[in-house]
Amino acid sequence: MSKFLSDLLPGETGVVKKVLGDSMIKRRIVDMGVIAGTVIEVQKFAPLGDPMEIKVKGFNLSLRKKEAEMIELKIN
Amino acid sequence: MKKNKVTVALVGNPNSGKTTIFNNLTGSRQHVGNYPGVTVEKKEGYRNFEGKDFVIVDLPGTYSLTAYSLEEVVTRNFIVNDKPDMVIDILDTSNLERNLYLSVQLLELERPTILALNMIDVADKSGLKIDDAKLAEGLGGIPIVRTNGVHNKGMEALLGSIPQSSDKQEKSKFRLNYGTDIEDAIQRLEPLLIPIYQKLQFPTRWLALKLLENDSNIIDSVKEFTNADHIMSVSNDLRTELIHELGEDVEILIAGQRYQFVGKVYQHAVDNKTVNTVTISDKIDKILTNRMFGLPIFFALMWLVFNLVFTLGKVPSDWIDTSFGIFSKYLESIISDGPLKSLLVDGIVGGVGSVLVFIPSILLLFLAIAVLEDTGYMARAAFIMDRVMSRFGLHGKSFIPLLLGFGCSATAMMGTRTLENPRDRIITMLVTPLMSCSAKLPVYTILIAAFFDEKIAGNVLFSIYFLGIVLSLVMARIFRSILFEGQSEPFVMELPPYRIPTTKSVMIHMWERSTLYLKKAGTIILAASILMWFLTTYPKDIEYSKDYDALLAQAGENYTQQVSEEVLSKLEIEKIDQNVKLAVLIDTIQKEEEKFAEVTKELDEDSPEYVKLEEGKTEKNKELETANGELYSYAAKYVGLTQNVEAEKSKIKNEMSGEELEKSYAGQFGKVIEPAIAPLGFDWRIGIALVSGASAKEVVVSTMGTIYSIGDGNENAHSMTKALQNDEHMNPLVAYALMVFVLIYSPCLAALTVMKRETGSWKWPALSMVYSTTLAWIVTFIVYQGGKLLGLGG
Fold first, then answer.
1. Residue B377 distance to chain A (closest CA, Å)
2. Are B675 and B646 found together in one domain?
3. Nearest-CA distance from A63 to chain B in Å?
4. What pLDDT, on the 0 to 100 scale, is given for residue B709?
5. Which of helix, strand or coil describes residue B335?
6. Which residues pair with A14 in a beta bridge?
7. Which residue, A25, A42, B41, B105, has most beta carbons within 10 Å?
8. Peptide bond preceding A47: is omega within 30 degrees of 0, i.e. cis?
9. Structural domain count of chain B
10. Would you call B128 helix, strand, or coil by DSSP?
């Protein structure tokens, strides 16, 4: 069973295992520092439930749930 | 040195304070242009420092140097092809790790580079201690300067370090090790690239990396060469091998290696004492994007922006409009009649006026945008609205331009600059004109007043606005799937920390945008206005159906005769002046009438206010009558006759200008298109109004005024309403169909011009014009024919 960033709730953290998806979106996500081994903390969801806000490498990043589904997390 | 100017390129992440530093370095000595062939903006500034002239280029803010965005390609091409003497990489020190990811990519381009550790104060406060020497060492001995853009510190140090390091021009010792597998692949590719690298200017190692990354832009350039097939087959084999061995896309592997390298440098050079504290920015964000308050705060702010731009902006706009009106009248009075006068007054002055009235709104719009962006709220606005907008294929940031569309499409289109992605920008611009702009409102108001009961007026108006919103969202969805099929846009967006914007950067932003508008859009709008003037005024040598001059002369003669028979001869005088008392009395009555006309201009004749004012007038006249006896009746007679003749003359003149318009090029065109618009319930007169309305939507009303021979519609809404009601062709259904058509059809010239300027091509405004007019026809056809089937209209 795999776990994805989209499964996390605000306040929860996870460690990135792999970024899936097509090249452009994947590259964008990776360029922002979301690579294997990075710790991610979910900050919150937008008032309408999507997109979400995460903290990575000390800064805040927003991405749609659809994109968060592409970020596979390590299961501890 | 071969050049006497030192070129410096500023590079950095968005929100790294790059633009602030650029403004500090150059002040107002800036020039905004475009990179050849693309719509990416090129900002250049000039500075003289210690006897040397600097040309400073502000490259677009980027996170990486891939081929996925135009900005990134422009950045790397500029650095390599234009060979700036120095590249200054500006880093947000409080967010160093991700900023260094761009730095290592810059260093791989092997051009002289300096790091500017910006916002060092913020980093200091949050407990980050940076060892500059260790950082420099980790990056191959790169020079490092500390700066604080907001407080304008470190700028001299920055400029001072430039000539010194560029004189040396020593090759950077920087090299990032990508691990055995990738390094082997690079080493096998590099020799093949030696014959071509000089032409491409990029270093061979970098080219090899890009080929392994499958960088579309570099592959295209390599394909130009004769031995390309061989190079490509080798690189493709190597890539497949790597993917097979390492189980991941090579570009992701390479990016991962870069981040790992950066991570190590960072650990080595930075003493991070921040204990994952919740920053002030986080606290502010908790409120501004709160589940409960986030939306209300957002809408309140949007309301404020809208009112700032349009309600507040309308005040100076009206001044400009009025002064141009006065200026026209003045010109009219000093120049003798003729084509030159018409060109000057109606063409040029009118055209310049129509350019300048936009200025206040544009200044305020860019003020609002600068504040929203510099504070960091713009990203939050997108964050809040993205859920809704993404459903229709739009970006969260599209909301603001669309909202501004209710004010003015041309202004709103300039607001699409906040969207980073050109595809999002184009779709937003294509659908913005469907948001009913304020210039269309007078058209609706007149038609609604003439054909709809007051009780349902609000609903009718709302239905039009609502239709516009629905259509814009539907069209956005359609455009996304037709024009940019399969290209899903990521919403991976940084939410920068909240900051207090500096006045200087806000002012420069405002100034720059407005002058750009004047220069680029202004000239085209002016030309278009003159063209429209020409089309509605020429040809001049038309054959009138009546001899208007004779009619006017006749009216004048009748008047003189009546005055002499009914007033002068009765009092046994030859001229009014001969009876001073009479002259004074006439003057008093006339002034009273003028005052009455002025205060009742906007009133309905049945309204209680009107009746009251009219009673007041009658009262005053009675007083005059009692005081002056018989003389009053002669004076009143005279005033009445004068009023009648003036009304008659203006009726003849209006009829004449109506006929002139009908026979002008625009009018002829209106008649030509009549068969095409007949199924919509429109006749040629509406056709002419619609044609001239293409220049600006409010013109539809004044043209209808001219064509219905009642003079300028703006001056007298009542006669306009009456004329429309009395017209046998018009009915509520036609009126509604017309409103629908005006809502949807071609954006005005100003909007189309701005669109050209923003997209860099006439292709998009042309598409916009064609699609919206087609859509208008289809929707209006459905409305009109459907209405007829339902037995509406009559």
1. 13
2. no
3. 5
4. 61
5. coil
6. A40
7. B105
8. no
9. 5
10. strand
